[in-house]
């Protein structure tokens, strides 16, 4: 492994490695966190069942004692997040994504989700679709990543049962929190996707905790008022 950078936000270390044939790979190291073993095996079980141009490829994994690592294809353009939440204007002009490119990215993510819901032998519900979990290759082809919260179920199952809500605040579908308004299904991922597309169009987070005016804190409410 050539470099390792720690992501303090989620307690992970993400590194760049090189295989014997010279291929660059991304290495995701999991610290010893509560419940991380379940998340690790959940991600391996979910993504190992997939093969699609818009889903990141798991090349291998390592597990020994408290040491756990996932090895993926290296995505040189990183996550979608840095391209749509660039408040400091640190991106060069040629790195800023055009509307046509953003449209292509959103379409690719939709194709990836459709594959997870209908194209696999077992249905995979991701539950954490957001810009941070969308990786971009050299040609800005999107790859859905991070299946740690995913749930595998039979394709004929329309409603799934969960012990608790899964996902990230701002993207979680209402039925995951308020159980009496409807069942949890693959449509919950469609809600995640819709919230993410709003962010891609508006180029701001759908929840801004630093905003003083509560009417502007939640992006959908702000859009509705405008």
TrEMBL record:
One GO molecular-function entry: ATP binding
EC number: 2.7.11.1
Cited SMART domains: S_TKc
One Pfam family it belongs to: Pkinase
A GO cellular component annotation in the UniProt record: membrane
Domain Protein kinase, residue spans: 1-226
Keyword Signal on entry: yes
Domain of life: Eukaryota
Keywords from the UniProt entry: ATP-binding, Glycoprotein, Kinase, Membrane, Nucleotide-binding, Serine/threonine-protein kinase, Signal, Transferase, Transmembrane, Transmembrane helix
Locations listed in the record: Membrane
Bilayer topology term: Single-pass type I membrane protein
Chemical reaction(s) catalysed: L-seryl-[protein] + ATP = O-phospho-L-seryl-[protein] + ADP + H(+); L-threonyl-[protein] + ATP = O-phospho-L-threonyl-[protein] + ADP + H(+)
The protein, known as: non-specific serine/threonine protein kinase
Species in which this protein is naturally found: Eucalyptus grandis (Flooded gum)
Taxonomic path: Eukaryota, Viridiplantae, Streptophyta, Embryophyta, Tracheophyta
